[in-house]
Amino acid sequence: MPVPVDKLTNDEPFPVKPDTNEYEALRFLVANQEYGFTPLEVSDQTNISKSSASKTMARLFKKDLAKRSNGAYYVEPEHVNKLQQRLESLDAAVQLFESTPDDDAYAEEGWEEDLPSINPDDEPTTVETRDSTTVEAEAEHLITDLEDN
User: pTM for this one?
Assistant: First the structure.
């Protein structure tokens, strides 16, 4: 029986953000999937403070990203691959944004003001309304292109 596409897709964002205690704890649990750890043990193995470890682990449990048994938290084996892929995707996104060049025009305030309107109701720019130096530059560019071809 066919399944509606809406049921196959999940547009909910991943409930853990990079550079958070939850992210670090989940990454640790996925990397050490063979074992369960108490919050104190997670704290000892990560940069999460002892006072934050219990709250962090409780949040992962509440979000159903980690399971708990006898005070130890772990990741279910059948969810490890999916969680690992999601964490790697987050890492890739962080690296992408960190590698953005500093001279990115879109990073400058007001960049959108330099763009022409895409609204069809706006008055189109004509030769009479454009700056003459712009028209001359466009003409020279066209001539150069024609000569090169």
Answer: 0.60
